[in-house]
Design a protein that fits this description.
Blueprint lengths: L1 E6 L3 H15 L4 E2 L8 E6 L4 H12 L2 H6 L4 E6 H6 L1 H6 L5 E3 L7 H11 L3 E3 L9 H7 L17 E5 L1 E2 L10 H5 L3 E2 L2 H13 L4 E5 L7 E3 L4 E3 H9 L6 E5 L8 H9 L6 E3 L7 H7 L5 H14 L4 E8 L6 H14 L4 E5 L7 H5 L6 H23 L6 E9 L1 H5 L6 E7 L5 E7 L6 E9 L3 E6 L25
Parallel strand pairs: 1-2, 1-3, 3-4, 4-5, 5-6, 7-10, 10-13, 14-15, 15-16, 19-21
Antiparallel strand pairs: 8-9, 11-12, 17-18, 17-20, 18-19, 20-21
Helix pairs in contact: 10-11, 14-16
Bound molecules: S-adenosyl-L-homocysteine (SAH), iron/sulfur cluster (SF4) and FE3-S4 cluster.
The site of S-adenosyl-L-homocysteine has 17 residues, from strand 15.
Length: 482
């Protein structure tokens, strides 16, 4: 039986999809890249912006005829939009068989089996934020962390590890707390066991996931765990060479965490620290819980404690009531903060959020678009400038796979263009050998733009990371032709 799955949204969704595929593989499914060949078609969806939802509804629309011709195909909608829209999905696309929220994914294999056998529609979603006691609601959002299947990671040497689910911050623009449920931290012992298992299977880099990953709090009766404690224990696992974590909530950026990032060599000196706006009036309406001054302080502390740290951020432009003056304050913050990159989004009103209830979505779309472009242009200039000091420098990359160009060309040979990532999360493109995917390699940088460093392999394995673990590198003549 063949399974096709399409995933949009954040890393949390990518991880969920990996685990969904692994659990259906146990039932005899294999993945196909062709939607036409599939017996079961799944969409793992996102509700963070309207655009993400529109994409899924139009993909569903395109399946109408296929389902009429092959009624035995199972079509399922999973993830955040499933939780948000629930039965509306069946009303908008009556041929959908299955709707499963992110807190109910453990039921998926059984539901697919039932539909195959008996037909009919199935829906499993979690309780809404007002549909029970805190405990009941928590229980209805189950973290989906079955045993990992190493064959299901696209890059076996890298893995996402969930440390929390849900969110309790309730930023007024954001749908996540209502679709992902209450903030719940996974027990440290489970996380460590999963990381040890991954290391045993050859995984070299793990990325810890949580909507507000640095709010992690867990007590196992013997001790209380914070993210910094987790990092320390993960750091001791033999075989894991790099540890990253996303996404940080600025207010919870505590000294113990900054110290852990500074002192633990395997932890990437890289912080994703979304600010959203540079205007206090806007931050207040967003209910972010900090002022621009407080954010600047956190940033200064991070840069002070962790020299060379790369920091990235998220911005929303055109939030309700954002004036040109507010926007210019965001531009000032971009100018002064020198983020490695910035992810910039046009505000998209989400029904059911406090933002939608309290404030009018009053910034016209063309103004949002212009602000988005202006900010992107400014950030790109900064990213490009701050990549220039890498010229001539040697960095150590973890080789992730063929570059986009190599993939597009369908390059099947041994030598090809590869991409890797530095410890500080910069993308490096170089020519190498297919066998080097999954290895740490020293690369000298000779060119850089805003988003990419270009380099070539160094003959002598060197660099700060785990030289003893480097596989022997077979050198080929350097080539500049990328
Ligand atoms: N938990 C993370 C990420 C949340 S979603 C955090 O707190 O940072 C990722 C990003 O999407 C957010 O940082 C925000 O910039 C953006 N976003 C969230 N809701 C949005 C909305 N309604 N419209 C536009 N962008 C939004
Ligand atoms: Fe959304 Fe705010 Fe929670 Fe991030 S912290 S997921 S932006 S509510
Ligand atoms: Fe989207 Fe859900 Fe992630 S709304 S951003 S997929 S948590």
């Amino acid at each position: 039986m063949k399974l096709y799955i399409e995933t949009v949204g954040c890393q949390m969704n990518l991880l969920d999809s990996e685990l969904v595929v692994a659990s259906l593989r146990k039932d005899g499914y294999e993945l196909t890249a062709s939607i036409h060949d599939a017996d079961t078609i799944l969409f793992n969806t996102c509700s963070v912006r309207q655009h993400a939802e529109d994409k899924i509804y139009s993909a569903l629309g395109r399946l109408k005829d296929a389902k009429r011709q092959h009624p035995d195909k199972v079509i399922g909608v999973l993830g955040c939009m499933a939780q948000k829209d629930q039965g509306l999905i069946f009303r908008r696309a009556s041929y959908v068989d299955l709707v499963v929220g992110p807190g109910q994914l453990h039921q998926l294999p059984r539901l697919v089996r039932e539909i195959r056998k008996a037909g009919g529609q199935r829906m499993e979603v979690s309780l809404g934020r007002k549909e029970g006691s805190r405990e009941q609601i928590e229980r209805s959002h189950e973290s989906f962390d079955p045993l990992r299947d190493p064959a299901m990671r696209t890059t076996p040497f890298q893995a996402y590890v969930r440390i929390m689910i849900g969110c309790d911050k309730f930023c007024t623009y954001c749908i996540v707390p209502s679709v992902r449920g209450p903030e719940q931290s996974r027990p440290a012992a489970e996380i460590l066991a999963e990381a040890r298992q991954l290391a045993g299977e050859g995984c070299r880099e793990i990325t810890l996931l949580g909507q507000t990953v640095n709010s992690y709090r867990q007590s196992d009766g013997q001790r209380a765990w914070r993210l910094s404690d987790l990092l320390e224990s993960l750091h001791a696992i033999e075989g894991i060479d790099r540890i990253k974590f996303v996404t940080n909530f600025p207010k919870d950026m505590t000294d113990d965490l900054l110290a852990a990032v500074r002192d633990l060599p395997k932890v990437s000196k890289y912080l994703h620290l979304p600010v959203q706006s540079g205007s206090n009036a806007v931050l207040r309406r967003m209910k972010r819980g900090y002022t621009v001054e407080e954010y600047r302080n956190v940033l200064a502390r991070a840069r002070d404690w962790i020299p060379g740290a790369s920091v990235t951020s998220d911005f929303i432009v055109g939030f309700c009531g954002e004036t040109e003056g507010d926007f210019q304050q965001s531009m000032d913050l971009v100018r002064q903060s020198r983020f490695k990159n910035g992810f910039i989004f046009k505000y998209s009103q989400r029904p059911g959020t406090q933002g939608a209830k309290l404030y009018a979505d009053d910034v016209p779309d063309e103004v949002k678009r212009r602000r988005n472009n202006d900010m992107l242009q400014l950030q790109n200039q900064i990213s490009e400038q701050d990549n220039q000091p890498f010229l001539g420098r040697e960095v150590t990359v973890l080789v992730e796979g063929p570059s986009k160009t190599a993939e597009k060309q369908g390059d099947a040979g041994e030598r090809l263009q590869l991409i890797g990532r530095t410890h500080c999360d910069r993308i490096v493109v170089f020519t190498g050998n297919r066998r080097q995917i999954g290895q740490f390699l020293p690369i000298v940088i000779y060119d850089a733009n805003a988003h990419t460093l270009f380099g070539e392999m160094v003959a002598q394995p060197a660099g700060p990371e785990r030289i003893e673990r480097l596989q022997p590198v077979v050198m080929a003549p350097p080539s500049h032709g990328q």
